[in-house]
Amino acid sequence: GEMQVHLQSMVNLLRDNDVLRLVVKLETKYYLPGKVRYLAVVSSFSLDDIEESVVLGIDWVDESATIGLVLPLWRDTAIELDGDGGFELSTNSTVHFLKPVSVQTMWTAFQWIHKCSDNARRNNQYPAGTSHSWVKYYENQISSDQTCIKEWYVTFPNSKEDELLRKLLRHKLREVMMTVDLEEVTSRQVRELVEAEVQMDLKQYKQYIDKEMLTIFGQMDSASKIYDHVYLGSEWNASNLEELKENGVEYVLNITKEIDNFFAGTFTYFNIRLWDLEDSNLLPYWDETFKFINQARDKGSKVLVHCKRGISRSASTVIAYGMKEYGTSLNDTMKHVKSRRQCVNPNQGFWKQLITYEGILNSR
């Protein structure tokens, strides 16, 4: 049948050892006689047998298949249903809107892309890294008609103004959620309160606000008291002025690239601007963070050490502090910190750095 012919043409576009994981038929807005659009997920395996995947946008026009879109699936790839039978596929700062022809194919595509992006996160595959070099082969094969390519590249990169607005919405959303009874309000009511704060209609940001609300909910536990003078927490804890004051915190150690200091005129801050990536190098900062934490102790104060969620970057730094301050082993320190904050889970890169740091401390 027709589908079999189309599939064979798509297979002919692939390199010999690449695997066609998924083919899904998509709706089209730009009509051409006999035109059909397909989304394909293609995988290749590295020398270490690690899977790497890419989305291909394939156009069937004039009895032949051509490539119109090549989209590597990185660790930052996100896929979300758009509520209209399609989904948003965002990666490397752009968003592509894709709509399969049926609910079943939409769900199948959603599951496969989610699975591939999870694999990319586990193996730390990101745009500036060493994976996906083979994708250049497909980028060089892009040959669809310009009308077809235009449809694939109806993208909406986040503008600087949009990023600033999202940052403002995150801040206002936290403020609103700290002042209402969350058991008595709906997400719509929360959004309306944020709208009143910024004096804007935020319907187009409904999905973003709902997602941020869930993130904030996940952060809303109190900061964890690890040692008498050291609290470990999240962005939420760093923005909660009442909690900071109740805990006697006057020093804040902010270990994030993405979060500003909330009360710069009120507390003493020390910033380490790093992402939670396995190749981020925290180890060189641990002597400085040790001094900063003890400075707070010597002043009779408490210190909050935080990152986005209080799980990896900040937790690793508190573990490094505990090993040096109390002379405990990495495993014992990890057990202690985890007993006080169960969600602690340094990424593999930070764990290797902690092993190295333990060796450095033992050799002194």
UniProtKB/TrEMBL annotation:
<dbReference type="InterPro" id="IPR020422">
    <property type="entry name" value="TYR_PHOSPHATASE_DUAL_dom"/>
</dbReference>
<feature type="domain" description="Tyrosine-protein phosphatase">
    <location>
        <begin position="222"/>
        <end position="363"/>
    </location>
</feature>
<dbReference type="Pfam" id="PF23040">
    <property type="entry name" value="PH_SSH1-like_1st"/>
</dbReference>
<dbReference type="Pfam" id="PF08766">
    <property type="entry name" value="DEK_C"/>
</dbReference>
<dbReference type="GO" id="GO:0030837">
    <property type="term" value="P:negative regulation of actin filament polymerization"/>
</dbReference>
<dbReference type="GO" id="GO:0005856">
    <property type="term" value="C:cytoskeleton"/>
</dbReference>
<keyword id="KW-0904">Protein phosphatase</keyword>
<feature type="domain" description="Tyrosine specific protein phosphatases">
    <location>
        <begin position="287"/>
        <end position="341"/>
    </location>
</feature>
<dbReference type="Pfam" id="PF00782">
    <property type="entry name" value="DSPc"/>
</dbReference>
<dbReference type="InterPro" id="IPR000340">
    <property type="entry name" value="Dual-sp_phosphatase_cat-dom"/>
</dbReference>
<dbReference type="InterPro" id="IPR016130">
    <property type="entry name" value="Tyr_Pase_AS"/>
</dbReference>
<keyword id="KW-0378">Hydrolase</keyword>
<protein>
    <recommendedName>
        <fullName>protein-serine/threonine phosphatase</fullName>
        <ecNumber>3.1.3.16</ecNumber>
    </recommendedName>
</protein>
<keyword id="KW-0963">Cytoplasm</keyword>
<dbReference type="InterPro" id="IPR014876">
    <property type="entry name" value="DEK_C"/>
</dbReference>
<dbReference type="InterPro" id="IPR029021">
    <property type="entry name" value="Prot-tyrosine_phosphatase-like"/>
</dbReference>
<dbReference type="InterPro" id="IPR043587">
    <property type="entry name" value="Phosphatase_SSH-like"/>
</dbReference>
<dbReference type="GO" id="GO:0003779">
    <property type="term" value="F:actin binding"/>
</dbReference>
<keyword id="KW-0206">Cytoskeleton</keyword>
<feature type="domain" description="DEK-C">
    <location>
        <begin position="163"/>
        <end position="218"/>
    </location>
</feature>
<comment type="similarity">
    <text>Belongs to the protein-tyrosine phosphatase family.</text>
</comment>
<dbReference type="InterPro" id="IPR043588">
    <property type="entry name" value="SSH-N"/>
</dbReference>
<dbReference type="InterPro" id="IPR000387">
    <property type="entry name" value="Tyr_Pase_dom"/>
</dbReference>
<dbReference type="GO" id="GO:0004722">
    <property type="term" value="F:protein serine/threonine phosphatase activity"/>
</dbReference>
